[in-house]
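Bench notes, bay 3.
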Amino acid sequence: MSTGAILPSKLTQFALGAQNRFGGIMVVAGVLAVVGLAAPHEILQKSFYAAAAALAVLCMMLFGLVGVHVKRQKATLATLSDFIDKDAVPSFLAQADGAILSSNQAARTRFQAQASDTLAGALDRTVADPAGILFRLQARADTEGFAQEELVTRKGHIRVGVNKPGSDTYVWRVEDVVVAATQHDGPVLPMILVGRNNAILYMNDPARDLVGGRVTSLDRLFRTMPVQSGAVCDIQGVEGVTQVLVSELAAGVGRKALYLLPPGPPSVRDDEWNVFENLPVPLLKVGADGQVQAFNLMASNLIGVALERDVHLSDLMEGLGRSITDWLTETLAGRATQHTEFLRLKRIDKEVFVQVTLNRISESGDPTLIAVLSDATELKSLEAQFVQSQKMQAIGQLAGGVAHDFNNLLTAISGHCDLLLLRHDQGDPDFSDLVQINQNANRAAALVGQLLAFSRKQTLRPETLDMRDTLADLTHLLNRLVGEKVTLTLTHDPVLLPIRADKRQLEQVLMNLVVNARDAMPNGGEIRIETQCIRLKAPLNRDRVTVPVGEYVTVHVSDDGIGIPSDKLQKVFEPFFTTKRTGEGTGLGLSTAYGIVKQTGAYIFVDSTVGVGTRFTLYFPVLEHRKSEPVAKRIETKKPTGKHGDGVILLVEDEAPVRAFASRALRLRGYTVLEADSAEAALKTLEDETLNVDVFVTDVVMPGMDGPSWVREALKDRPDVRVVFVSGYAEDSFGEAQMKIPNSVFLPKPFSLNDLTDTVHEQLH
């Protein structure tokens, strides 16, 4: 494949082909001239002569152009051939069809046994399926101009690269890749490269010498599977069963490199430890007392400056669940059931988790431990995120369930309090006590609302809002909350688009943030509330949340307070987490704000620097349908004045105290009330076809059949009956089911006597 032999042959073939085609054209011109001689008329003769002359001139011009093209192509290819000929890496100059135009001396020396006119033929004995690999790389080079790929061969790693300098010309380079384990001056370690399915892709020479040849899969090499990093395993070596200490390193693309280390002789002296100094695996030698006796460079880089000789292992890392000293003692005594533990390093600059595997050896008759370390920070971070999400979900479910039960209790308490208030006027000595009971029941209902807000199960009443108007209405109350030492400053974007949210809940979020900012500045300061309308042109990724592209109204609440430490910053939205002293806070404020914001479809983030201040940022999506009719302000309407008591009510409630209050309240208004403690009992009552029922008042969540299910069944025979659903859960939890039931309304618990009777009256009229 010499440079001077291959290059002219290809161009000669091209030139000969062109000459053959031009020769055909000249033959046609000659035929036209002969036909012209035989033509009977002079005009026809001249026509044939002209055509023949034109073809002859065209043929000569084309022949000249071909000659110029061949010369230029030859010069270009000669330049490229001279360029690659000076390259020490095997290089080829080839056409699009893979035909080799030229090759350098390194390529001719490396692939002389595979002499071929095509690149696929030259690489046929080096890589498997060379045609597919070359086609894939050439296709990428056609679009990007360059492509390369690392391949595992029988003799090691190679990197195949291709450049496209011309329209139909490609420069290929086949370069050996030096394995990382052979790049240091220390001893070359036995190393095998393993793929996804435990197939051995590559073995270096020390590994081949250890095993006694090429092995294709792990199960043929290791006597027990699976192979665990940091453990001593038995392999089938050239001299029989051999023990090795396995260390695993990620090699990318689903591959891993397994280093087969010596398991440690019966005695490991300090001078022998120097052999391990440059190994690409963090190693520690730990004495029976837990003191570090030796370590290598990789261990020092992983653990940090605190790693020194005679430092106790517990001073470097802390156990997750049990004492490190107990673990060391059990391992030395041979009683440890688990030799691998995940531990947290005591580094002050960053959080690092390590997987530590202990191996017991003997040194001069005394037991010693060799610890193999690997960085497990990413794994533990993912695990912590998963556990946190599971914990928050569980707390949310618990909060929703507790809120439901409390709402039933509060309904009974406040309801019976209303019944007592009907029999006492303001001059009665018991009237003030009843008012206190009623007010505290309402406060308890507000606390339950916070629990529902955290679990995102409270009922929202969204409306179209202008953030400037909302803050303007709230400014007076906020100024009273911050006190005299703190200054409240509001800054608005001049063009602020509308959003959709529950105004009452949004005000609660803002008040919680302002109160926290005030408490962070005991000596006074400034709280800044800034609104801005922004457009995200790219998704915003932070705190494991992605804010999609679009328009948002942002609200920034900033203070100059003491700040939040970084280790507590990720916990501020957790329920019952607070840095305040006992009695100063419940720890539900920020978790409530978080739940409201998330249920609204918005986002909340926090940034803080200790000693500088804290900044909360809220992103509210801009209302898309801006031309929709604005929500009218709530106008206090007169309660229904029609007469009560002209209807039959079927009351279905599984909680006896709530059912007792509701039935008494409705009977006091003159209604006829039929009671049922379950959905099945209600359907049994309705089997009487002569019974006339005007309204169903039913709980939503009950043992057995739930409220919407039995109502749908009952409406098949009584389609005109109206329905009032009551529940301690949010309306959203069964909103779809309610929407499918005609003439139905929702009444959340806890409700008062007037709330219940007025709702029933409105349904009847």
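Next record in the batch:
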Amino acid sequence: MTKYLFIFYLSLWALNSRAQNILRVDKSVQQHKFTLNEVKYLQDSTGKLTFRDIQEMSSSFTENSSYYPSNHYKNSAYWFRVRMYFSEPVNNNSIIELFDQTTDEVTAYMPDATGNYIKSESGASLNFNSRLFHHKNFEFQIGDTKPGYHTYYFRIKSHNAVNVIIVYRTIDYFIHYALNEYLTYGLFYGMILIFCFHNLLMFLAVKKKQYLYYVFYILSVGLYEMSADGIAFQYLWPGAPTLNNYGNGTALYFTSICALIFSKELLQVKTKAPQFNRLINYVLLLRTTYFLYCLIFNNSLFVYKFVEVIPLSLAFATGVYIYKNGYKPARFFVLAYSILFVGFIVKALTALGYTYFLPAPISYYSLSFCFIIEMVLLSFAIGDQVRILRKEKDAAHEETIRQMRLNSQLKDSINEELERQVEIRTHELVEKSNEVRQQSQIIENQNKELLRANEQLEKQAGEILRMNVLLEKDNVQLKTNIEKVTESRALSTELGYEEFSAKYPDQETCFKFLSALKWKDGFICTRCSNTTYCAGRLPHSRRCTKCSYEESALHNTIFQNSRIPINKAFYLTYLIYSTNGTISSHQLSEKLDIRQSTCWTYAIRIKKVLQEKKKSRKKNDQQGWTVLVM
């Protein structure tokens, strides 16, 4: 009876063995991926089955129906089994490699030369230094193995949905493959750094915020790719495997946020599509809320990467809408996101096992290739926007030059009219002067007649003489008063800038005038009170011969520390004085061709001095605008 039972179990084992394809390995096999019925699996819903239990449940393994097996139930542990036949001994020159770097726990049971199984552990939940090789994937070395049939078991436990890709490789092929792979990574991340550095320099040069947002977006993409590839775990946080639970989700969040903010700035969404701008703001708020909830309460929700389709689709739709409305820089933006969507589709199909017919570099690195193309196209979009802005700026500059030319022509015509009016007025004044001269001649003749009449009135000569003396004194006083009134009126009359500049044409004349005005009562050194001086280094400055202190003509005047030309400062002071401070800063700006804010600042200072001088000067003080200087 025992013999028959043994034959029955042996038959079942043989049938079960025939159901699973066996990889036959010889020297010609450098690499092989286990797919379809080459892999069998067993779901451990309790997670407590031991390797001994699994060996006893060999008949319970199920054939794999998909191209690559996966853990459909994330709370369960999965056991996978592959079988190989070695035609010759294996002397530590081969490995079995598992992909998907987000897998939490990978435990391998590898038979040795005696048929006993050796347990090896790896996974994203262990420190990176615990791995057999310092490589982003999980490698388990096939030890000394005799020719014949051998079965290998792998226990997978992960909170993410992962594709269990099991690959046999020789050590030589693994080294070749790893070197090429890391060279590709170096080129990819090197391009990211170059793009970041270039756009950072552009931001520093032109101060356009879209360059800075683009740098943040590229860095976020780089962090996501490093987290997805396992490069971040290898180089950034090898001793903190807990961060693997947050790396992908955090990088994807910043990628979405930076992509939306960059899209808003590049496409000028706020002004060109206000409805999309509000929608983007809502998505930013909701995506941030979802990220904070995952980060604080349940980081396992980070595995739902499909939520990134919403912000990226919104950015793509916004670009299409704005491009249809005639904004040309959006064309490269739309093309870039179209290619990025193709990359996402290929990546999703790869995760579902539908792209097995494609070459491995295309299926596994499609998203990275599309990211590179997207970065190039987005750089073109930024450059296109800058080119259009420069073109608009040049057009505005040409319009400004044309307007200035028209203003110059109008100014010339006004000057010609003024010259004609001045000529007419001068002619009138000459004629009136001749009339006055003739009247003066008549008066002189009459005076002669009066003198002859006075000779006849000898008796009244003394009295008339005394009266003439008194009249002469009155005439002198009257003449003096007339001159003062004339000077006062001249000081209060508003002269044009050209007429005023004729009197104070340059800095030399202004400094000479200030020097004479400042030291009209003699030089006194402000430090040692010495009264002797010599010429200083600056124009019309004076240097004390005793203490060598040099004092400029501007020192202790209202023009000290002035940042506008001195002759314009003279005219500004004159205008405020002549208008009694009523002239506005806008009028001053038009007359002096100086910014209104600068005119306003200087006008406040001069008006303050004007008010102080009004209180301190006498009623009949006729010093004019120069009273404000000292």
